[in-house]
Design goal:
Mean pLDDT: 83
CATH class of the largest domain: Alpha Beta
Radius of gyration: 20 Å
Helix content: 40-55%
CATH topology of the largest domain: Rossmann fold
Order of helices and strands: HEHHEEHHHEHEHEEEHEEEHEEEHH
Number of domains: 2
Structural class: alpha/beta
CATH architecture of the largest domain: 3-Layer(aba) Sandwich
Number of strands: 14
Low-confidence stretches: none
Shape: elongated
Amino acid sequence: MYFGGMHPGNSSLKIDRYKKIIATVNLNKRVSLYQLEKLLAVSRITVQRDLVELEKRKLLRRFHGGAMSIEYSEDLYDHDLKKSVNVAAKKIIAAKAAQLIKEDSYIGLDSSSTVYYLSETIFAGNVLVLTCCIDSFKNLINRDDIRVVLAGGRMNKKSHTLSGPEIVDMIRKFRFDMIFISAESYIPEIGFFDPHAEEVQVKRALIESANRAVMLIDASKVDANANGIKVCDISEIDFIVTDKPEESGLKKSFNNKIL
């Protein structure tokens, strides 16, 4: 591994830190600043500076609170790949969530793969659905009893999703009866997190524009050591839908709000 371009004053200790960071990130796919602080026995600001430098060299990708491998960051945006993970759990969650949709309602859907499976599920008709996902839009447009709106924004070709300030502005023009979102992880008693800043902005806009917010999340995403950007607090979610409420520990946090 070559770290050329370092001026003579740079010590071998910095190079050793770089090597440890890259090895750790590649091994674990995603690590937090806290984990790197402990591993390297240095201050947070030192870790942050190292991550900035390594990202400039395209050796990793930073997010708020940590860093991830380049390969993992690309996988996160691959919608077809995400749709193929935990499919059985996602379909169970989608079937439960569909029961919450009532006729004559306004519904908002984010671009997550779990919510995509809701768009495949049969639910009440005569509703208006706004979606941020091109694949979900394709599913819904074939239904004569649903009015579907594809929120305009910047398209990520790999994820088949739309995001950016344009879509946030559009969402804020609506008032939804219920919105359905997902997240990459749930930290018990703290909240829900996702590594993608633009997608978090879309999820936040949906929550703020809805009478009720529903979180769809499979039990595998409950992780006390997770990191990322905070999507929302527990108190902002009206219902949580999961595949294994007892095993995941989610029932303890949400009690009568869980399906």
